[in-house]
Write a structure and sequence with these properties.
By secondary structure, the protein is mainly beta. It contains 1 helix and 38 strands. The radius of gyration is 29 Å and the shape is elongated.
């Protein structure tokens, strides 16, 4: 009896082993695919894309032979595939072990001759097995662009908005030369490509969303499109002067705007009108003994929103400077630091902040405004709302609202959504300002003439 049982057990094991090594040929064989569509956001022509992938699973207890994994567009397709480690447009007779899988990797490159405007390219991958056909759709938005690598502007030039601009390597504006960027331009900058200004930068954006000038990293795919430190930033060096940015939107840099030393003339080194600076990993605006005039600007969710060190001359009017800890940047530094020293060098400091909001939440910062200065330095806060536990000392101040939530329209950290407008009627920032010559807000909407405008960059309409 024992012998019979042993023989039966041995035969069963042998049968199961043979079955696992044999191929299932039935049309009812189970096969699953991890994705039915691969979608690529804007891909600039000739640059290519990230590589995406999907898996083909053999859900059977026997081997499965794939007759074919085929890129339907063939060798002329903008897509390229790699099947189980082999780059090809069609792979045939692929074996997948029982309850195992294989990878298919897909990349896309757009033809530069395909047109000027955003366009969509499509293809598909056909998978056949045991008389069955399955499809995976491929879809990419592509766009032609001006491509610059190690671009040096040694003679002044102007960029129009006919195509986006993609910067690789670096962009350099030489001393006494200027780069003018017209309304509606989109500037996409690679991760290792600083914009260095020894001459002048003029940005001529306008109030409509489509007419603003945008600076961003060149990774537009999820999740990278929202990552801070996606590109280095814009650096205004010692010789730079006469820089004016109108309706510029600067996002996801390491240091969005960095300035050193005073202007080469009596004008501010940098003038910012109706600009948005957002999601910079280290700093939104960082200046060392320089000069800035900023009006109706929003600086939000940066590691250090505004850091003005080693002295200088600064005027900020109707600006909103706010940070909330989120998945990308923990709020650890005050939203505004003003100092006449950088820890080593000291210079004279003059600064005026009028009709501004300085606010932060979700971090461990108790004083969102920090001022470090000597007795001969002049720092004035004229009608501002701030969050501080210990107010800054030795300053001139009037009309300060302390530690009252400005009640921004909508803050949703989990969804990475921030609207800093003042639409709630109980906001303490409404009608809390002092009269100034600023006639519009960041949206280009009219501010009331005379006294009592709203604080911050947005006027409640």
């Amino acid at each position: 009896m024992k012998t019979t049982l042993l023989i039966t057990l041995y035969v069963s094991i042998l049968f199961l082993g043979c079955k696992k090594d044999s191929f299932i040929t039935s049309g009812d064989a189970n096969l699953s695919i991890s994705a039915d569509t691969l979608h690529y956001d804007t891909v600039f022509t000739s640059v290519g894309s990230i590589t995406q992938s999907f898996k083909i699973f053999n859900d059977n207890n026997q081997k499965l032979r794939l007759t074919s994994v085929k890129l339907m567009g063939g060798s002329s397709s903008p897509f390229n595939i790699n099947v189980d480690g082999t780059a090809t447009s069609e792979a045939i007779d692929l074996e997948i072990d029982a309850n195992d899988s294989l990878y298919v990797f897909v990349q896309v490159t757009i033809d530069p001759a395909s047109g000027n405007l955003p366009f969509i390219v499509r293809d598909s991958i056909q998978i056949t097995f045991n008389g069955n056909t399955r499809m995976v759709q491929l879809e990419a938005w592509g766009q032609n662009a001006h491509f610059f690598r190690n671009k040096e502007i040694i003679s002044s030039e102007t960029w129009s908005n006919d195509l986006p601009y993609v910067i690789q390597g670096y962009l350099f504006v030489a001393n006494n030369q200027s780069l003018t960027i017209e309304k509606g331009c989109r500037i996409y900058v690679h991760a290792d490509a600083p914009i260095i200004i020894d001459g002048s930068l003029q940005v001529n954006g306008q109030k409509d969303t489509t007419e603003r000038v945008y600076f961003n990293g060149d990774r537009l795919d999820e999740p990278y499109k929202d990552f801070p430190a996606s590109w280095p930033g814009i650096f205004f060096r010692t010789d730079s002067k006469d820089n004016v940015l109108n309706y510029a939107v600067i996002r996801n840099a390491y240091q969005s705007l960095a300035l050193e030393n005073p202007s080469a003339n009596l004008k501010p080194k940098l003038t910012l009108n109706e600009c948005v600076i957002d999601n910079s990993y280290d700093a939104g605006i960082i200046a060392l003994n320089s000069s800035i005039t900023a009006t109706n600007c929003l600086v939000s969710n940066c590691g250090k929103n505004v850091a003005l060190a080693r002295g200088g001359e600064y005027t900020f009017s109707h600006c909103t400077v706010a940070s909330y800890s989120n998945n990308y940047i923990q709020h650890k530094d005050p939203v505004l630091l003003v100092s006449n020293t950088d820890g080593t060098n000291t210079a004279s400091l003059t600064a005026l902040f009028r009709n501004c909001i300085f606010w932060g939440e979700g971090g461990d910062v108790e004083d969102e405004v920090v001022v470090v200065k000597g007795s001969t330095d002049f720092v004035s806060f004229d009608y501002n709302l701030w969050k501080v536990k210990t107010p800054p000392q030795n300053i001139i101040s009037a009309g300060i609202i302390s530690n009252q939530d400005p009640q921004f329209d909508s803050i949703n950290v989990s969804k990475n959504y921030y609207d800093f407008r003042l639409r709630k009627k109980n906001s303490p920032a409404i009608d809390a300002g002092t009269g100034s010559s600023v006639a519009i807000d960041l949206d280009g909407a009219v501010r009331p003439a005379g006294l009592n405008p709203d604080l911050g960059c947005f006027e409640k309409q």
